[in-house]
Amino acid sequence: MRLSKLFGKTLKENPAEADTVSHRLLLRTGMIYQVAAGIYAYMPLAWSVLRNIEEIIRDEMNKAGGQELTMPVLQPLEWWQATGRDKVMGENLFVLTDRKQRKLALGPTHEEVITTLVSRFVQSYRDLPLLLFQIQTKLRDEPRPRAGLIRVREFDMKDAYSFHTDEADLDKCYQTMLQAYRNIFERCGLPAMMVEADSGAIGGKDSNEFMLIAESGEDEIIYCDTCKYAANAEKAKSRKLVLEKEDAKPLEEVSTPGKKTIEEVSGFLKIPAYHTLKAVFYIADKSLVFVVIRGDLEVNEVKLKNLLKVADLRLATEPEVKEAGIVAGAASPVGLKGVKTVADDSLVSGVNFVAGGNKPDTHLKNVNYPRDFKADVTADIALTGAGDSCEKCGGKLAATRGIEVGHVFKLGTAYSKILGANFIDATGNSQPAVMGCYGIGVGRLLAAAIEQNHDDKGIIWPLPIAPYQVYLCPLYRDGTKVAEIAEHLYQEFTVAGLEVLFDDRTDSPGVKFGDADLLGIPLRVTISPRTLEKNTVEVKWRKEKQAQFLPLEGITEKIKEMIKG
Prior knowledge:
Elements: H1 21-28, E1 32-36, E2 39-42, H2 44-63, E3 67-68, E4 74-76, H3 77-83, H4 85-89, E5 94-97, E6 103-106, H5 111-121, E7 130-139, E8 154-164, H6 167-187, E9 192-196, E10 207-213, E11 219-223, E12 230-232, E13 238-239, E14 252-255, H7 262-269, E15 277-284, E16 287-294, H8 301-308, E17 313-315, H9 318-323, E18 340-344, E19 353-356, E20 362-367, E21 377-379, E22 389-390, E23 398-412, H10 414-419, E24 422-424, E25 430-432, E26 434-441, H11 442-452, E27 454-455, E28 458-459, E29 470-474, H12 481-495, E30 500-502, H13 509-519, E31 523-527, H14 529-533, E32 536-541, E33 548-551, H15 555-564
Parallel strand pairs: 3-7, 16-18, 18-21, 29-30, 29-31
Antiparallel strand pairs: 1-2, 4-6, 5-6, 7-8, 8-26, 9-10, 10-23, 11-12, 11-23, 13-22, 14-20, 15-16, 15-17, 19-20, 23-26, 24-25, 27-28, 31-32, 32-33
Helix pairs in contact: 1-11, 2-6, 2-11
């Protein structure tokens, strides 16, 4: 491709609306164009990167035994209503009415469609297992689209679904898909970390995410260097501090004038925060929930939401707490009635806590669970952070940030039971198919690649997914010899199968080198009067500082060797 003919122009200045590195560079390079909030057109260079990523994904999915198909963006809303996910997705689900007044959803994902298809075509255990995948456009009405292609309303995604006769067969496929994902990210030149994850709106039990490590990542990853445990902060667990054993003491009321926060109370009573109980109030699907957790810990709202199995969870406002007759700042589970109570399991490992007294300026000493109060549910709902002890090996946990680019789930029979994806087993009985789900955000992966691979000059594309392999950069200045040889090399490179972006413009060296660095093509080949005096060309990898001079004769084969190597 001749750069003078390439559709899309580079920008000299950073776009004001860009809030991440990838967003800024994708706009500056002319690779994307914003049509509306969270909706982008992919220009030729970005489209080329997407196609390279897709072909790697497609190849690995085929090797894993997948069959490719495509499913419609428009989906009957009643299928979503049947699974209840219309309510789970809420306003994020695009819904429209056609001319015959039928309700349709614009698919943000395809569990309902694929399960219905399988229900029509699978009858016997002999038809299983199945691994079906597509690369398709999805739509989600994000309330706050941001970060360019990281969080959008229209996005490209590879999603795959597997169907099995039992959990053991699903486990085999799950391991196969984990390896396929490792292969995909390795072949893309994008090292990814696999972490334990929350299943979110899709549901299911076992779940893993693949994260590209990047400072701008929207997800926090908690990991252990000792045993290699890693989990999304939403899912991460730790070994909680086990308090020293002591005898339970009788309840005692103490005055705490003006002291409301854990810091204020623990400081006033001269006790550590882990000897206090923290009260936090939430509205879960319109009902008030009292959450009690040890004072040195924070509530993990994702864990809490999953535990309660609710669609909506938010912190309660002060008026909502007062309306329930609870004193904010001095609330206690002791003597509390009529409100659902959830306790973190940290309460089990200690005694003689300080908790609110359920009246102003008053707290209770020596509160013990379950002697003094009982919770409706007790579970791990604590947020894990850097410095905590690894649940698996006891080592110290660390934290980093990452961008989710892949997510795999074990769905079980949740969808197949509702939508009738059943099969007749070897004994003649009808059974629901056991399902797995495997997704990769293709556009998100493109953006994440830039977040992970850039410098202050521009993008540094990993070679396997780069829009072009070679940036052919002639510096014309005076005379036509450079132009003549550049034209010859362009034709020779192309015939040899090299993917070449030919900067045939007559701009200054500074402009050309600036655009070469900005666009991030892996290998730059420069021809100038100075190199021709020595019958050489200058060759420079984008990711390296130093260039090398190679003989003009045989340069095509040399470049091919460098690309292959």
